[in-house]
Structure formats: structure tokens, C-alpha cells
Write a structure and sequence with these properties.
Elements (H helix, E strand, L loop, with lengths): L1 H36 L10 E2 L6 E2 L5 H12 L10 H18 L8 E2 L1 H4 L4 H4 L4 E2 L8 H9 L1 H12 L3 H32 L4 H7 L3 E2 L3 E2 L2 H4 L1 H14 L11 H4 L9 H26 L8 E2 L2 E3 L5 E3 L2 H27 L7 H31 L1
Antiparallel strand pairs: 1-2, 3-4, 5-6, 7-8, 8-9
Helix pairs in contact: 1-13, 1-14, 2-13, 3-6, 3-7, 3-13, 7-8, 8-11, 8-15, 11-13, 11-15, 13-14
Amino acid sequence: MIADLVISLVFIGYAISVLMGFGTILTWVERKQAAVMSDRIGANRAYIRIPGTQVKLVWLGLFHGMADGLKMLLKEDFKPRTYDWYAYAVAPWVVFTPVLLVFAVIPFGGSLTPARLWEPLSAFFGDKTWPMQIATLDAGILIVFAFSGLTIIGAMLAGWSSSNKFSLLGALRAGSQMISYELVLGLTVLGLILVYGTVNLDAMVRQQSGIVLGFLPAWGIVYQPFAATLFLAAAIAENKRIPFDLPEAESELIAGYFTEYSAMKMGLFMFAEFIEIAIIGALFTTLFLGGYNLPYMSDAGFAFPGGAALALPHGAVVVTQLGTFLLKVFLVCSFQILIRWTLPRFRYDQVLMFAWKFMFPLALANLCVTAVVVWAVRA
């Protein structure tokens, strides 16, 4: 019992560190990647001076994220003259907290056996093995949609409670947009559920460690390439990022549903947006890119086509899986930022038409074709 608690605390600490780290690093990646795409230098002004010297540590602008965080913590917290104080205070946390909770059901590694990492640990942990996942729930993907749906409530609460017409318009846009694309997300994932026959995320990843057609890794993107494209587009729209940032639309609504927020309350909205980029990357990696495994890899090592195999020590497998998962997530995050600085913003009517008249029919068609193919293969 105590060993289970220790492992759970370690996993929770790791997950929070990863999400907070991604949230901080991605603010720098967005600035630097935008600068590279625009042929600019980018963030390079914030620095730390070594005491007693004139040496300034710039480190490619990495200190800008720290400076932004300190600025928001130290700024005065202005509030509207007339507002609903309770909903106004709760809204940022309703947006921020579910984003963290989603990661609880995402497997970030395979199996962990502490005694195989270091023999003396067997005295405390025994020979027990734990899946590297905070909450090993069978209905993992359903929990993801349950938690992610709560952020819609937070955005609408923020706009309604601010007593500001621009905030209210942003909240109405956020509600209709997020509900529309949530449906598309669900339909794309249903195709994978038909293929793998489970809603358990760890079971999906383990099935993706196999081989299809004799040489291709059995990743979700191989089985459902069309659904992968729809999922990523809908997920970006769920996160309200350009080209789908109509709930904010600073050129139209000042700052949208969080116009009346300042200091760290506004920081929570902005930080949640960057953490959600990482969550989208983690979900896409788990569902479509084989999760924490490299091609042909399992908890025992590598099994290549043709019968060749390469066994690896347990510690090497654990480190490889953790590093592989983080690298895949980072690459998907960078791709999302690339899209953000490539495409212009849609009009609001175009955003909804794109969801209901284009993506929704395509997601339905993909689901129907997948169902027929799965039935034909298994018949």
C-alpha cells in the first residue's frame, strides 16, 4: 500500500513537472519559431547577470518565460466595477485544472519495476510492476473527453461574469466553437476504438507496438491517417489557437472572454493554453504515433521484422520510452506552433461552417468506412 502511494506520488510529480516545463518552454518556442519563420532574431533581451561580473546569461531568450511569470505574479489584480465575484474568481481554475487532470490517464511509459532498476529497492517495492500512468482506468479516453469538456464551462463563466460585452461575445464564441469541435474529436477517436477494440489508452499504445503489412509499425496514423488529420485540426480549434482563435480575436474583441482579467488570473488562461498544446501533443502521440514506444519496440526491447530481436536492460527501456514520448510530444507541439504562425484567422462564420459542413461529414464518413472495413476483416 505504501509502495503504491510512493509510486503514485512520483508519477504525479513527474507529470506536473513535465506539463509545467512544457508550458514554460513552449512560450519560448513560440517566440523563437515565429522569429525564425519571419527572419527575425526573436526573444533575446531577458538575461541573468553573474554577480560581481558583467557577464550576462542570455541563453537564446530562455529567461523570457521566467520574466513573464514574475511579471504576472507581481502585477496588480484589477477587477471590473460590476461583476459576479464568485464566477469571476473560479473561471480561471475551471479552465486550468481540467487541462492538468487529462494527463492523469495518458501513459507516458511502459511498465516500471523498481527492483530491476536497482536491486536494493526490492526490499521496499518487492517484485511488483507498475504501469507508468497516474490513473490506470479502463475508460481512459472517456475520462479525457469528460475533463476536456469542463474547460468550455470555464471560458463561458469568465465571459459572462465579467459584465463586459466583448467578454460575453468571446464566451459565446468559445462555447459554440468548442462544443462543435468536441463532436468532431469524438468521431475521429471512435474509428480508433473500432480498430483497437478498447477505450483504454495504455492498451491502445501496446497494440501499436506491433507490425502491420509485415514492415510498418501498427501506429494509429497507419490505420487511420485521415482521422489523424481531422483530430489534430479539431484539437487546435478546441484550444482556440490561430486560425481558430475567434473567442479571443484581439483585433475584434480586445482579449475576448478574459478581457477583464489581469495579473495571474490572466496568466492562468494563457498558461492553460500552452499546457493544452502539450496535452494535444500527448494525446496525438498516444492515439496515432505509437505512444512511448519506438517502431518495433516493447517493454522487453526491440523485435524487428524477419525475427531479429534486441533485448535491452529494464532501465534502458524505461529511459528510452520516457525520452521517446517527450520527443514525440515536443515535435507535435512544434508543428502546432508552425500552423499558428502560418495560417490567417478565419471569420467566425467560417469556423462554424468548417466544423459542421466540412469536418463533421468527413468524420462521419471516416467512421462508417472504418466500421465496414473492420467488419469485413473480422468476419
